[in-house]
Specification:
WalR-like, two-component regulatory system, 235 residues, binds calcium ion, 9 helices, alpha/beta, phosphoprotein, transcription, 12 strands
Length: 235
């Protein structure tokens, strides 16, 4: 998934770039409207994130020009101008969503994911924290590091990733992965959770499989990206 960020406030632009890369996206960042137009016109992006007030070419005009040239890439507009008039102008110009600054990193990620889903992007990976589970190769990926999972490890990890911070009981995991009729006992689940914890550690993942009173499991991020979030919120 490739995202273009067009934003002239360099600190915000670079924080956005870092946040999105941390979430597994390929990101290009440019700092003015003309560069944005040249990059966007390549047609290689799955999503455009445009600021409104930009040097050389403003975000409204840029969005309008891209839509006039039949570029269908989803556009998320960012701006400090949160008045109704501006939101309407942005949407009329061809933006798909309008996010007023300052925003929270989680809010931004929710918008990004919603826009990519709406576009019908094929889900080929589940992500949590800085880690992705590649569904076609059964591989856990963190940056350049990757580790292959066995069939059962993969099924357990996929359930955990899909549930995220929600608790999954051992029983549920056992039933879904091993089936009702199997001889497997809850101890099997514990063993596989142990394997997965080692593999997550081996690639430097910030994802932790937390257990609640030995009854079930959920995912947590050990060092939350709250630093980036705080930085973006403060801009
Ligand atoms: Ca600006």
């Amino acid at each position: 998934m490739k995202i273009l960020v067009v934003e002239d406030e360099r600190r915000l632009a670079d924080s956005l770039g870092a946040l999105l890369r941390q979430k597994g996206f390929a990101v290009d960042v440019v700092y003015d409207g003309e560069a944005g137009q040249q990059y966007a016109a390549l047609g290689v992006y799955d999503l455009l994130i445009l600021d409104v007030m930009l040097p050389k070419l403003d975000g409204f005009t840029l969005a309008r020009q891209l839509r006039a040239s039949h570029l269908g890439t989803p556009i998320l507009m960012l701006t400090a101008r949160s008045g109704l008039e501006d939101r309407i102008t942005g949407l009329n110009a061809g933006a798909d969503y309008y996010l007023p600054k300052p925003f929270d990193a989680r809010e931004l990620m929710a918008c990004v994911n919603a826009l990519l889903r709406r576009q019908g992007a094929q889900v080929d990976a589940l992500t949590f924290g800085n880690t992705a589970l590649d569904l076609s190769s059964a591989t856990l990926v963190r940056g350049d590091a990757a580790v292959r999972l066995s069939a059962k490890e993969f099924e357990v990890m996929r359930l955990l990733m899909a549930a995220g911070r929600r608790n999954l009981s051992k029983e549920a995991i056992l039933t879904k992965v091993w089936g009702f009729d199997s001889e497997a006992v809850e101890n099997h689940v514990e063993v596989y959770i142990g394997f997965l914890r080692k593999k997550l550690l081996s690639i430097g993942s910030d994802v932790r499989i937390a257990s609640i009173r030995r009854l079930g499991y959920h995912l947590e991020v050990t060092e939350d990206d709250s630093e980036t979030a705080t930085e973006i919120r403060s801009l």
